[in-house]
Every structure is written in C-alpha cells, then in structure tokens.
Amino acid sequence: MVSKFSLDSLILTKNAHIGVIGLGYVGLPLAILFAQKGFTVTGLVRSQERKLEITHGKKYLADLGIQENLQAVLNSGSLQVELFTPQSIAPLNVLIVCVPTPVDERKNPDLTSIRQVSSILSSVDLTGKLIVNESTVAPGTTREYFGNFKGNYSLVCSPERVDPGNKEKEVAKIPKVIGGRDTVSTKFGSILYKSVLDNQVVTVSSLEAAEMSKMLENTYRAVNIALINEFALLADNLGIDVMEVIEAAKTKWSFQPHYPSIGVGGHCIPIDPYYILHLANEKGINFRVVHNGLKQNENMPGVFIEKFIKVYKKKMTVVVYGIAYKKNIKDMRESPAIAFCNLLKVKKIPFSVYDPYFNDQEIRKIGFSPAKKNAPDIFVVATDHDALKEDANIFIDTNTIVIDGRNFFQKKIGKLVIGIGRQFV
Ligand code: SAJ
C-alpha cells in the first residue's frame, strides 16, 4: 500500500508509474511525453483493436507527426499499451483521464466515456494514487464523476491544451492549468506536470476553477470568431474589405484578431462551449451571447452556399478545395468543409473534392468524388492549406470563379474572387 507521502518522492524521482486513460489526440502525445521524460507509462485503451492500432499501426493519428516518437518509446518499453480494466489500475501511481467529451446530435454534452472511466475506477481502492482529469468538462463534473471513489487518493483537474498539428505548440511548451480538490492534490498535480513540462504550471484554487478556465478560453474563441463573421457579413453588404479592417483594428493593444471563414470545426471550439451553455441553462442563467455566437458560426457554410448559388449555372464544373477543419493538418472532425459539401449534395449540385492531405480513396470513403487536377468553372476554398499557393496554378485559370471561404487570396485571381467580407472582381 503506497502512502500519500511516497507519491511525492515517486514523482520527483520519476519512479511513479503513470497511467494514461485514452490514447487519442490528447492522451497519446501526453503518454509519449511522460515516457520520454523517464517515467514508466501504461497507455490504457478500451479495445484490443485500439491497442493493436497503436502498437502495430503505421498510420495512427498520422497527422500528429508522432509516429517516430511513439515507436521509440514502445521499442524502449517505457510506454506499454494495455486494456483499461480494474486489474490494470493496481500498479499505477498516477492515472490521467484523456477521453473524448463530444456533444450528441442535439448538442447536449455526451459524457459516455467519462461515465465508463468512472465506473472502472470506482471498482478498486485508489489509496495513495493521483487521479487527473484532462478531459474537457463543465464545472462540477470532475468532482461528480471522480470525487467519490474508494480510498484516500488525490484528485486534480488539468484541462488539455493540445493544438493538433501545431509543431510550435508541442505539449511540453504549453502552460498548464491545475486545480485540485485539496492543497495536497494540487501540490501533487503541480509536481507531476512540472516534471515533464518546460513551461509554466498555473495552479488555481479548485477543480471547478480549472474546469471553468478551459470553458472560458474556448468559448471566448468561438464567440470572437462569430463576432468577426458578423462584421464580415456587414462588410460584404457595405463593400468594405473586412481583412483591411481587422489589420487596422490589430493596431489597438486590446484587440485580438479572429478571422471570418466558411465555418468553425475541430473537436474543441464548436463543441466545448455547449458544455458551459448547457450548465448555464440548467442554472437558469441566459447565455444568449454564447448561444447566438455558436449558431452564427454554424450558419457560415450556409452563407457560402448562398454566395455559391449566386454564380452557379447548371453544368458548371465545381471543385471544393479542402476537407480538413483547419489548414495544414489531416483532421476532418466537425469540418465546415464537409458541411459545405453536404449542402451541395442536398442541392444536387455535382462537385468534386481535392485536399492535399487526403488521397482519392479517403475522399471517396467520406462520400465525395476526388477532383481531377484541372481548372473548374467554380473553385471553392474550404480549407486554406499553405499548399493552395501552388495548387492554385492547377485549379484556377482566367475563367475560374473563386469562392474563397477562408479569404486566402489577397488579390484577384481567376475570373473573380468572392470571399467573406472581401471580394476581388
Ligand atoms: N477559425 C476561424 N477563425 C479564426 C480561428 C479559427 O474560422 O479566427 C476556425 C478554424 O478554421 C477551425 C476552428 O475555427 O475550423 C477552430 O480553430 P482553432 O485554431 O481554434 O483550432 P483547434 O480546434 O485545433 O483549437 C485548438 C484549441 N486548443 C484546445 O482546445 C486545447 C484552441 O483552444 C486553441 O485556441 C487553438 O488550438 C489555437 O489557438 O491554435
């Protein structure tokens, strides 16, 4: 039986056995980081299939560019992957929960994975261990689902802050917020992350403050994107170039730029705010700004369909550039590009798709036709990959109408460019 006191020294001497529950976009980079820093790490997954994907798969989370690092820690044995069962918990000193927290089709929080983890953890005595919740949840959730287990254990919330595909912002360089249910828990959590992070650890006074900080940072981003989308719609109407306006506003110290677009995708920004919106509604607090902002963002693929319909004529050839939810990554979760394509399908408008990060087979697999590499009558920019700079030479000629869903182009190209809050005729 490990006493609480020994957890301190186990972490500081890197003898603590770390368990990471969930090896997805958040858990896998974190597990690799702890293993690289000298800890023994066990990745805990829900199925044998997932385990094999990670230990024998070549393309698992390929867009994260971590295959080499993953292989190295697997080969060295510092990272092992096991099924998450009650029996897998005993040897672990620290358990970090990194499971998905999506929303359902009615935009309500879906805590299925959290409940599954809670059920398994509730079956064993956790005395002397540290439980960390990194999954994004509304204030009060960590305490509700992880605060009542058997034994004398420590509990912290430290919301994940991964930016998929951004090499500059690797896990070790991102400041980490930590809130514990008591001072000893916060201390253990702080020692744990300081042992692997090059950057600062920010402690707050409670589990709920940590949960709320994550809600605030992502809801702030969603609402500010919605704000600039609204300004772009008015700029369109007034014939003002919204990108010029943003550049001017950036000269003010308190203005943080956001950019209008065909929509907001990913597993964070369009989803996390629904967790706090749902809680506010439960508490009878009217989050009208958050609600309207989320709806505004969800409306943007439709805004671009209207722009498209204004220039489209039967039999015109159409290429949509981009599947990914944001530039320079291979990740299509909640992608507005896919939302736009599906709206074209509903209108029975034939089109084909090209994305430099997805091959023809992958594009067919999601129900779209891969584009041939020549200039169509209408070219829609749905994802502003850097590769578009070169790809424009293939897909845009003097007769091509460009619907620029990302305001990628800074000057006229093709026959005309219709952006959002900007156009070049
Ligand atoms: N987007 C806009 N306009 C903007 C910024 C983004 O339309 O001004 C769109 C993007 O194209 C994308 C979506 O919003 O479809 C989300 O963009 P994002 O840059 O926020 O990308 P994410 O989802 O990878 O966000 C992650 C988040 N990290 C975590 O939740 C831990 C987010 O909090 C970060 O702010 C973001 O990375 C970042 O700053 O890079």
Structure description:
This protein starts with a helix and ends with a strand. The chain has an eight-stranded mixed sheet, sandwiched between helices. A six-stranded mixed sheet has the order 10-9-11-12-13-14, with helices on one face. The chain contains 15 helices and 14 strands. Helix 8 crosses helix 10 (272-282), helix 8 crosses helix 11 (288-298) and helix 12 (300-311) packs across helix 13 (336-346). Strand 1 (17-21), helix 2 and strand 2 (40-45) form a beta-alpha-beta unit. It is an alpha/beta fold. It is 39% helix and 13% strand. The model has no long low-confidence stretch (mean pLDDT 95). The chain has helices spanning 4-12, 27-36, 48-56, 67-76, 112-121, 141-146, 183-194, 207-238, 242-249, 272-282, 288-298, 300-311, 336-346, 360-365, 388-395, and strands at residues 17-21, 40-45, 79-83, 94-97, 130-133, 154-157, 176-180, 201-204, 318-321, 352-354, 378-381, 401-404, 416-418, 423-424. It binds ligand SAJ. Residues 160-164, 166, 217-218, 221, 225, 258-259, 261, 264-266, 268-269, 325-326 line the site of ligand SAJ. Ligand SAJ binds at residues 160-164, 166, 217-218, 221, 225, 258-259, 261, 264-266, 268-269, 325-326.
